[in-house]
Batch of 4 targets.
Target 1
Amino acid sequence: MPTEATPILEVIHLKKHYPIGRGILGALRSIPDQAVKAIDDVSFNLKRGEILGLVGESGSGKSTTALSVLGLVPPSAGSVQFDGEAVAEGIKSKKRLALRRKMQMIFQDPYETLNPRQTIYQIVVEPLEVHNITRNKAEKKQRVIDVLSQAGLKPPENYLQRYPDELSGGQRQRVAIAAALILQPQLLVADEPVSMLDVSIRAEILNLLRQLRDEHQISILYITHDLATAGFFTDRIAVMYLGRIVEIGPTAEILQRPQHPYTKALISVIPVPNPRLRRERVLLQGEIPNPINIPSGCRFNPRCPIAIDDCRKIDPQLIPEAGTHQTACIRVK
C-alpha cells in the first residue's frame, strides 16, 4: 500500500520511439528501420506535494514525457507508476477513468484549449459531467463557483456566463486551471503554462499554482524551456537533453552548483538584474541533433565546449546511488 513517504509518481526507464517507414527505395536498398527517439531511457520520481521542473530545449522530449506520464502516449518500453498503480493505455476503461480523475493537465496555450462556443461555466463543469460525480445542478454550480474562486477569478459569479473571447490571456489560463482542479486531482502536469502569457502575468499564475500546492498538497510536474521560471517555482529540477535526463537535483543546488555543461550553458543565459553578478555566457554551437541519429557516446558531445575523445565513446548514465544531485557527465569528478 502507498504511504506518505512513497513517491506519488515513478517513471522507470521510460522510452518512446516513433518508427519511421523506409519507403520503397529504403526497402530496395536494405536501409535498416529507423525511429525518432523522443524519450530514450528516462527515470525520475515525484513526491507528494512536490513541484518538479522538467527543463530543456525544444525537441528534448519534455512534452512527450508529460503525455506518457498521463497515459496519453503508450511507451515503447519502461513504465509509469502513479500512486502505486501502473499507468498504461491498455488498462480497463473504468480504471483508466478513475486514474484520469487524479491526474490533470494544464496546456500551454489558453487561446487554443478553451472552446470559444462554450461559456466559462460549461467549460469548467464538463469534467464533473464526464465523471458523473455530483448529485444535482445546485452542487455542480457551487463546485464551479468554488473552483473559479480558488483560481483567482473573483467574484466567480461574474464569469459563469462569459465566453473565452471576453477574457484576457491570464484569465483564460485561470479558467484552464479551474477546469483542471475541479476533480480535485493529486497530480497536475503543467506544460509550459505561462509561456504564452505576458511577463507581468507569469508570476501571478505560478504563485497561484504554488499556493494551490501548499493548500491541497497537489504534486506538480512543471514542463518548461525557461530555467529562470523553474528556479523561481520548483523544488527540484531535471534537465533533459535529446530524450535523456542529464542532471537532476534540488533547485538551489542545480542553480548554484550546476555540474553538467548543458545545465551550465542554460544557467549562463538567465537574465540577472545586478550587472556585477552577471555570469559569462556559454553560447552553444549548432542545434540539438536529430533524434533519429543520436550521436555516439555522450549525446551532448557535438555541442559541448569541454568534450574530450572519451566523450565520443562513453555514454554516461545517471548514478542512482550518487545522492540527491545527480549528473551524467564523465568530466565531472
Note: The chain has eleven helices and eleven strands.
Target 2
Amino acid sequence: MRVLVTGASGFVGGRLAPALEEAGHEVRAMTRHPERYEGAGTPVPGDVADESSLRTALDGCQAAYYLVHSLDSADFQAKDAQAARSFARAAKDAGVRRIVYLGGLGDDSDDLSPHLRSRRQVERLLADGGVPVTVLRAGIVIGHGGVSWEMTRQLVAHLPAMITPRWVHTRTQPIAVADVVRYLVGVLEAPEAEGRAFDVGGPEVLEYLEMLTRVAEIQSRRLLIIPVPLLSPQLSSRWLSLVTDVDVQTGRSLVDSMTNEVVVRDDAIRRVVPFEPMSYDDAVLTALGERARERRAARRGKTASGLGRIR
C-alpha cells in the first residue's frame, strides 16, 4: 500500500516510516524540507498550511497518517483546525481510503484542556471530509525526543528537589513510543479499525508523581518532591521553561492537560492489534538507552571531524 506519513521527521513519524516499510508498504515521507530528509521512505514536500502542497503529496496514496500539531503556537487551536480541514479535503479529492490519526486520551465528559479539546476537534474535522478515520488516543508517550518524556527526564536530571502543583497526583497511562508505532502499523489494514477511535496505553496507571520518582530510582538519583496547592498553569509553564528546554507555550499547553486524567477506558485495541505493551520502567530504560547511544555517536562524530581537520 502506498502511504503518506505527515510529520515524517518528527518523534513518532521518524519511527513510523521505517516500521511501515518493514511491513511492506511504500512510504511517502511528507516534510517541509525534503532536501534535508534522511529517514525512511521517499521524501515529498508538503505543509499542512498549504492545501495545494497536500494535494500533490497525497496523489496516488491509499492511506495517510496525520501526526502534526501546533502546540508551540499561542493560536494552536485555530491553526490545527484549519490544517485538519485542508488535509481532509485534499485526502478526499486524492481518493485516500483511510486516515490514521494519533490523538489524545481524556474523557469527553471531563472539562478537557484546550490541548485535548483541540485533539478531539481535529478528529471530527478529519472525519468530516468523508474519508474513514482511525484514531488512536494516547497519553504520555515515552521515548527519546518526545516532548512530554523530555520534560520528565530533564526535571529529574536538573532538580534534586522540586516544588510541584497538585497535578502531580493526576493519573495517566504512559505508553512506549515503540508500542504506539506498533499500534499505528497494526490498524492500517485491519477492517475492524475503520472509522473507530481507540484508547492506547501501557500496562500501568501512574500518577505523574510516580512517573518522576521511578525515573529517579532507575537512574539512582535522590528526588524530593513537595506538592503545593497554589501554582498556576502560567507559573508552572514558566518554571518548566527555566529548568527544561520546553518552551513556555508548549509547556503551558502540556501543563493545562495535566489536570485531566488520561487513562484507557476501553481496551478494544488489544483485540485488533494483540500484543503485550512494554512496562513503564522498560520504556524509560529504552528511552535512556536511545539517548545514550545518540550522545556517544555525536561524540564520535565530533572526534572524527576534529581528526580530519588536524590531518
Note: The chain is about 45% helix and 15% strand.
Target 3
Amino acid sequence: MKKLYSLLGAMLVGASLFAQTNYTCTFSANVPMDSVQVKNTVSGEAKMLYYPDNEITLQKVEKQNVSVATVGNSAFLQQTANNIVAVNVETASLLNLTLYSANGTVVARYANAVSAGQYTFQVGASAGVYVLVASANDQTASLKLSLLENAQAGIFEVATAEPVAFLKSADDVITFNEGEEFEFTGYYKKQTDVKTSAIIESEEIVFAFERDYEGAIKFAFSVSDDKQVYFSQGNLQYQASTGMWRFAENQYDVIAAYNTLISSTYDGWIDLFGFGTSGWNSEANAYQPYSTSENNDDYYIGGEAINNFSGSYANADWGKFNAISNGGNQAGLWRTLTSSEWEYLISSRVQANSLIGQGKVNNVKGLILLPDDWETPSSIKFTCNPGDYTTNEYSLEDWMKMQSYGAIFLPTAGDRIGTTIYCVGKYGYYWSSTICGEGVYGLLFSSSEASIKGFYRYDGRSVRLVQDVE
C-alpha cells in the first residue's frame, strides 16, 4: 500500500529574482481520480491536489537563487496497518484528526489535549479511499488511506457531512528553473499512473487507469449508434440518517411502502426520489433525497425550469455527485440516462423489439432488458413483449442464470407523491436526465407497454444509474 504525504506550507526564499513565467497544468483521466501529486524532480518541492481540483500553476523562475523549506514530514503521521494510523506528538499539544471521504466530505473527527508520545488510532470506516489530516505542535500532515475491507469501529466521533475547502491546492504555486522536470502522479483507488515532463508551456497531463466497474453488471447495452453502457446492479437507495447511498443488493429489490417514512433523520432506506435530489445544493428549494414537496417549481434546478443535469448543474445527477458505497465509493462514476438514450435502448437498437419484455422475478413484477449480444441460457425461455408480467416468470434460480448472461430487471417500484405511495407492483417509473418544459421525461412501463413519458418533477421515481463502456 502506498503512503502519500502532503508537504504543506511549502515556503520559497529567493534572491536575485529577475523574471518569471506562469504555466498552467490541467489534469484529466478516464476516471475521476482521488488525487494528483505534482513534484519538482530536482528541488523535491511537491503539492497534492485532491478531487475535484484538476489544475495547478507552475511558475518558471529564471536567474534565481532559491532555497526551499517545508513543514510536515512522514514521521509525524504514519499508516501502520489497513485501518491503523500513528501520530507522533513531540510536546503537550492539542491533537486534531479529521477524516475525509474521497469526495471531500467529513466522515469523522477527533480532538483532544495530549501529552508527548505516539498515539495509535483505529479508523472506523467502510472500504474505500479517504484522506486523514492530523495537526499538533504547529505541525500538519495529510495521509491518503485506502482501506481494503470494512474496518471495525474506531474512536472517531461521527461528524455531519460538510464541504471541504482547505484541502484544495489548486491555487498554490510550485516553482521550477529552466530545464527542470516535473513528476505527475495520478491516483485512482489502488492504482497509480506517473507522467514526467519538462514544462515549456501550459499543457494537459492525461492519466490512464484500468477502470473499476464495481457495482455494474458488465454486459453492454447500446444507447446510441456509438455508445454503450453498463447498468448498475440494482436501483439506487439512500439512508438519510447516515447520508449513505448504495445500490440494491438484488435487481428485484423494492422498498415500496417504507418510502412513506421518508425524513431527514429516517434510519431506513428509500428508493423513490424527486427530480434532481442528489443532495447537492443546486439552488432548487427541494434538492435533498428526502424532499417531499408537492410543488413542482421547488424542484427547478438553479431555480429555473430550463436547467438539467449538464454544465454547472451536473451535480444534480445522483450518480455524478455521490459516492455509491457498493458502486466504487467515489463521486463521478455513474450517471442517469437521457430520454433519447432510454428511447434508443427500448426501440431503436439492433433487434430492440426482441430484447425487451415484461416479466416476474422472485415474485416481483417488472421489465426485463437484454444486452446487445444476448444468448438465452439453456433450459430458459424468454418471450419478448408478452403483454403481461407472468409469461416470463422466473424462480430465483432461473433468474440467476438470466442475470449471469446480462439480463437487467427493472422492478415495478411504483411512485411517490408527498409521502403517499402508488402503483407498486403495477407500474415502473424511472427518471431520465432530460427536461420537457416544466416536467421531465422518464421511462414508464406497465404489463402491456414501455415508453417515454413526461413526469412531474415532484413525483418520487426510481433511479437506475449507468456507466459508459470504454
Note: The longest helix spans residues 339-348.
Target 4
Amino acid sequence: MFRRIVAAVGVVVLLTGCTGSNTSTPLEKSALITPGKQNTLKLRNPLIIGLERFSKDSLLRHASFSYRFIDASNDSLIAGFNEDQALIPASTMKLFTTAVALEILEPGTRFKTSLQYEGTITGHTLHGNVIIKGGGDPTFCLGEQTMKIIFSNWCISLKKLGIDSVDGSVIGDGRIFDQDYIPYTWTWGEINMGYCAAASGLSINGNLYELFFEPLKEKRFDSGLKKVTPFIPEEVFYNKLVETEMDEEEIFLIGHPMTNQKTIRGTVSKGKTEVSIVAAISNPALAAAGEFLNTLCRKGFYISGKAYSVTDSDSLAERLKRSVIIEITSVQSPTVASIVHTTNQASYNFFAENLLKHIGLKVLKYGGTEAGALAVRHFWESKGMDMGGFAMFDGSGVSRFNTFTARQVTWLLAYMRASPAAEYFFTSLSVAGVSGTLRTLCVNTAAEGNVQAKSGTMSRVKSFAGYAQTRSGKTLIFTIIVNNFDGPSFEIKEKMEKIMDAMVQL
C-alpha cells in the first residue's frame, strides 16, 4: 500500500499539464441572500432551495457552517451565509499556500540537492566527509526506485573522482530550513503518522518509512534488524500491539518525534505473522545520510565513519563552517508548478509544508513554518484582502488552529483568475468525478466534470472551495465550510454533493 501511494504521488509530480483560463478582478463585498428569506429566487433557483434544505438538516443542528456563491462574470453574490465567520478549513488551507507559492516562488522554480565533499583526496581515499546538502526539495528520493537511481548515480560520480574509500563519515545537511520540523500545533497523537510527515531542508522518500515486523513475537527491537525502507539509523521500537478477533487492524506509533525511541500501539488480527506501519521520519537528514552510506557500502566503498546529521553535532557544524566544500554533482526537483499540482490534486500535506517554508525563506529569509505563515498573511493583506478571522499555523491544514472565512477563500479564488499563474493554479485543482481527491465526488450527477475545487476533510470538518461551470455557461466561485457536524463524514459529503449538483444547474 505504501509503495502504491508513493508511486502515485511521484507520477502526479511528473505528469502535469496546463490549460487556458478566463480572468476576473477580486470580488467586492455585496449584500447577502440567505436561505429562509422570502424572495423570488426560491421559485426558480435550485441552489437557493438546496441551501435552505441543507441549513435545516439535522446533521447541522450543532454545527457551525458558512458558504458563499459568486457569479464570476459580474462579481455578484448568488448566496451567502455566515461569510465572515472564522472556521477550521482542513485541507482547503492548501489554497492559500499553493496560490502564494505560485505568486512568490514562481511556477518554474526548482530546488537543488547536492552531493559534496570536504577534505582532501589522496590516491583513492577521501580524507574527509561526504555531504548531502539539502535545498528543500520535497521530491528528493521520493520512492524506492528513485532513491536507488539517484544514489547509484552518486556512487558513479564518486568513482569518477577516483574515490573508493572515505576516511570520514556521510553527513546530511538540511539547514536551509529551520530544525523545528513539526508545526507546534499538530497533536501528539498525529505527529508520527504518515500524513504528518513534516518539512525539512533535506528530505528522503517524502520523509516516510515503512517498517515490517512480527506483531506479537518481538517486544523490543532495533530498526537495523528489521526490513525498513528507507533505513532509519538507531531507531528503537517498543511493540505493545494486542491481538483481536476482528478483521480490521489499527496500528499507530507514539513517542517524541525528536527521540529515537517509539512505541507501537493498537490491534492486529489474530494469527498475523507480519505487519507493517508507515510513519514519519524523525530525523530526515540523518536518514538520508544513513541510506546513502548503506548504498556506498553495497557498491564496494569503504567508509570508516558513520551517518550523521549536521545538527546533531556542534563540532561537526563548526568543522563544516571552516572547511572548503566542493560540489560533486546535484539533482533538481520538478518545478514549483508541478509540486503545487501534486499538492492540490493529492492533498499532499508534506509538499504543502515544504512550500510554506520556502515562502518564508524567500520573503523573510527564514525557512520556518511561522515565517511562511506570516509571509502568506502579508501577501494577501498587500492585495487588499480583509484578514480578520484568518489564522494560519501550517501550510497543509492539519492544524486545528487554522481558520479562515468563506469570504476570504472566495476572494482568493477570484484573485487567482487574474493571476499570471492562473493556469497552473486552476489545473492543480481536482475535477469532480474525474481526478484527484474529487474523483469519487458527484459521480453521475450534473456536477460531474463541471466542478473544479479543493476539498478539506478531518474529524468533524468538511469543506470545499473552487469553481463551477453552470448549464447556462456561467462560471461560479464557491466556498462551503462545515465544522462540528453530527454523524459520519460521508453523510455530510453527500449533502454537499447535492448542493454542487444544484449549483451547476443554474
Note: The CA atoms of residues 247 and 269 lie 6 Å apart.
